[in-house]
Each structure stands twice: as C-alpha cells, then as structure tokens.
Amino acid sequence: MVRAGLTTDRVVVAAADLADGTGFDKVTISALARGFGVKDASLYSHVKNLDDLRTRVALLAAEEFIDRIEAAVAGRAGKDALVAFADAYRTFALEHPGRYAATQYRVDPAIVAEAPAYHRTLRTTSAMLRAYGLTEPDLTDAVRLLRSTFHGFTTLEADGGFEAPRPVQTSWERAVEALHFLLSNWARATGEA
Fold first, then answer.
1. Is the Cβ–Cβ distance between 93 and 152 less than 8 Å?
2. What is the dihedral of CA 140, 143, 126, 54, to 10 degrees?
3. Whether the Cβ atoms of residue 73 and residue 124 lie closer than 8 Å to each other
4. 18: nearest Cα among 29, 30, 27, 10
C-alpha cells in the first residue's frame, strides 16, 4: 500500500534536498525512506531503483540549474551575459551542492535526448557564445572551456581549496574577465583571423 501523501515528485524533491544536505553520493533508497518514516518498499511505488531515483534528481537539478541561468542572462549579451551566466552557475553550485553534483551524474543518453532541461542548457549556452561570433567547431570548444573552468573553480571553492588570503571573489572575477578576453579574441587566438 502506498503511503498517503507520497508522490514521485515529492520523493524526488526530498532526494534532492537530502543530496544538498548530505551529498549526492549519500542519497539512497534507505536514507530517503528513513526521512519519510516509511519502509524502503514504500518508495518502490514511485521509483524503480537507486539509478532511477538519482536520474530523476539529476533531471530536476538540471531544470532548476537552467532556470537560474536563463533568468540571469535574460536580456543580456556579450560580457554582461557571460558574467551573469558564470555567477548564476557558481551561486547554484555553492548553494545546492547535492543538486549541482546531480547535474554531473551520467544519465542515459536516451533520457537526455528527451529532457527539455538539457536542450535549454545547450541553447542558452550556445546563444551566449554566439554573441562572441563563435560557430562550430569553436562553439563546442568554448562550451567545454567554460564548463571545465566553472566546474573546476566551484568544486575547488566548495571543497575549501582556496586558502590564499586573496579574496576568492576577486579570483572569480579575474577568471571570468580572462574568459571574456579569450572569447572576444578567439579567432585571433586560434589563428583564424
């Protein structure tokens, strides 16, 4: 019998909240069931298994993540859009560490192909970079550069990896400024000018 009030959406949101509190890797069916005060079996009416639960959390997190980024970049272009994108990325990663970790979870490509959040992320990122005049294959390279930089910086920051007395915010701003400079000069930097 399904416990009253338990829905798939409620289970997934609770799992995302648990991930933010204890870490995405600590999200288990048992831990989630304990939080609801039910037996593990009660949750299997809502999710197939742990991979299904984590995939659903990843999809929810991806949706919330791109909502944040789209709101930040709306009506902006060039450097203003890049700064807004970068700051929204960093803020989400630091405020929601479990959800952010879920966005890195390897989801079945067939599910990704059907998930609107992933398509929105690609469209939003590509649109921002096109303002710098980038087209393929440079667009793909630039997306990889941004993702690597933002992910690396925020992961190190969240893990306490920046202990120098210089303010982390200043380093972040310099990194984004450097990315803007590189993107503005991409053709010259790659010898295509």
1. no
2. 110
3. yes
4. 27
Within 23-167, residue ranges assigned H as helices are 29-36, 40-43, 50-73, 78-95, 97-103, 109-114, 116-130, 138-158
d(CA 155, CA 160): 9
Classify burial at 112, counting beta carbons within 10 Å of its beta carbon; exposed 0-12, middle 13-18, buried 19 or more: middle
Largest Cα–Cα separation, the chain: 67
3-class DSSP assignment, residue 113: helix
**Omega before residue 97 within 30° of 0, cis:** no
Contacts 24+ apart (CB under 8 A), 15-18: 15/53, 15/54, 15/56, 15/57, 16/57, 16/60, 16/61, 16/96, 16/98, 16/99, 16/102, 17/98, 18/98
Residue 53, judged by CB atoms within 10 A of its CB (0-12, 13-18, 19+), counts as buried
Candidates 154, 10, 168, 7; CA nearest to 85 is 154
Give this prediction's pTM. Answer: 0.92
Render pLDDT for 49-58 as a digit per residue (tens, 0 to 9): 999 999 999 9
User: What is the SS3 assignment for 106?
Assistant: coil
- DSSP annotation of 139 reads H
Residue pLDDT, tens place only, 3-17: 558 999 999 999 999
